[in-house]
Amino acid sequence: MTPRTLHRGSRAFSPSGLRAVCVAHDEAGTRHLETWELTEAGPRRRLRITLDRDLPLTQCVALDDGRALLSWHEPGGVQRIDLFDRTGGRRPLGPCPTPLRLLPGLDLPGWIATAIAYGADEHSTVFRVGDDGPWLTPVTRLPGRLGGTAAVGVCLAVTAVVDGTPTPLRIDPTAPESGRVTRLTPDGDGTGARHVLSSRAGRVLLAMDTDTGLRLAVATGDDVRLLDGPSTPDSTVTPLALDPTGCLLAAAVNRGARSELAVYDVESGAVRQVATPPGVVGPEAAWTRRGLWLAYSGPTRPTVFGWVPPGESELRSAPAQAGRHPARLERLPGAEGSVEAVVHGPDWRGGSPVVIALHGGPDRHWTLGFDTLLQFFADAGLAVIAPNQRGSTGYGRGHADAIRGAWGGPDLADIRALRAYVDETRGPGAPRPAVYGSSYGAFLALLATAADPEGWSGCVAVAPFSSVSALHADANPPTRHLIDRLAGHGDVDDALGSRDLLRLVERIRTRVFLLHGRLDETIPVSHSRALAHRLIDAGHGDVTYREPADRGHTAFSPLAGAPQPREITDFLARPDVLRRASAGQGHRPLLAAAAHH
After folding, report:
1. Residues 482-497 pLDDT 10s
2. CA proximity to 506, closest of 483, 537, 481
3. CA-CA distance, 217 to 225, in Å (whole number)?
4. Which site from 88, 280, 284, 588 is most exposed, i.e. has the minimal number of CB atoms within 10 Å?
5. CA angle 320, 40, 88 (to 5 degrees)
6. What is the mean pLDDT of the segment spanning 258-269?
7. Which range among 119-123, 372-376, 507-511 shows the weakest confidence by mean pLDDT?
8. What is the pLDDT of residue 553?
9. Which residues pair with 194 in a beta bridge?
10. Distance between CA atoms of 547 and 542, rounded to whole angstroms?
């Protein structure tokens, strides 16, 4: 029986929008490079190439002629790029001299992809990737970090971010050096404008986030014009694709854990809803003469390419996979009002073991899309509650900004209130819930066990950090930028005190499982090592530490072949036994000094 696909990542569309490429992960743990084409009858897979091993940090580029580029990083950190032809033949282009971000190519001879490198001098270099002569050729160098990048014929539309301020630019490689870069700032208040989309007709869409929602501007040539954008104070709008004329915009309207598809008339402002099954759409999409197609994932549908045929108003997608657990949404009490949670598996009100799963970010949220992790927990008999506490995105700016300057404050209060409600509803004889978190969610999970020492049956923390200040001092520039952008500095003035886990470990009474990949470049593994040693030095009776040598920030994956999947579910489902107050009782601490596979 052919293993079913669980996830399609590294998704990318070709410049014309008629081709796509992705990396598919199946139940056996095998990775495949897939190429797709949008035909008159809908999306069709054209090629599926089994990759010989797990390739971390993959990037893909789809070419209009059916070829594809695949980039990945070797264990030593060297980035490599291969070119696949239409029959699956593979040609190495060579190791990259510097870390590169790959993007679609331009409509110029031999220009198969665009690459961008960001240097220690805080400048970005744009490269041409070619299949004739030198494969990597520098084009221009600009101050700041470049994002929001797309091909517009022979030009490149980008957003340069300097000192936190975005500026949309057009780069024309065919122009003389002095006139190669043009600003696309709209008249009036263009502060914070960024490039988001481009159409085949050459129209460029800019966006600005304001207090009242999304503000749009359209650039045609050198003419930049402000528009009235969709205003949604209780949701988030993500522009997905412009139609071939540049007059219609497909957008994902994200309301909490689910998103819906809408078509917005750029000229008139009229909005047309597209019937969308429960789940999430985008962010990758393309709109061609054969219709709109985009990434779609539902509770029982791993990511597929959905399709809206020309003239229709309903998203078509692949059927649900049999045997999957249907997710459901519940509103549950937080500290100051209810929070939405995605719930999987058995009814948490019964006697099954419960795990409260905390997302990372913190600027993230759980969705109704297919989630391999939550499905895996439900397969193990766990009742899963995945809350979108304050600080989560998708519920308007007020909800997301509630933790600015107070990480581990309002969000921790919501988790504590939720745990208390679950305990009260299940009754005194039911097992206490366990808590699982990854990255920021791991930090929050450990804080929760310190805040309510007797409230949890166990805690799994994947790639936690010990404190915001320590992470800011140790982390790489992108992580420090995220902390600054989300106002992670600051502390919460309450009885728990400073949110420093090294200070709070003596309050933790429950079983703790720490997992951290040795190759993590986002949160250094030294944070988990320090936490494990401090827990043991404090006399904690049950600490398990795992440090896989070949894993990075995503240290845990339920895909076959990944380390520790069954060990973690067994840990979360273990019968609840109240930890004895005296040190040394219960399980002895287990700290792996070397890597554990």
Report:
1. 899 898 888 888 889 8
2. 537
3. 5
4. 588
5. 75
6. 86
7. 119-123
8. 82
9. 207
10. 17
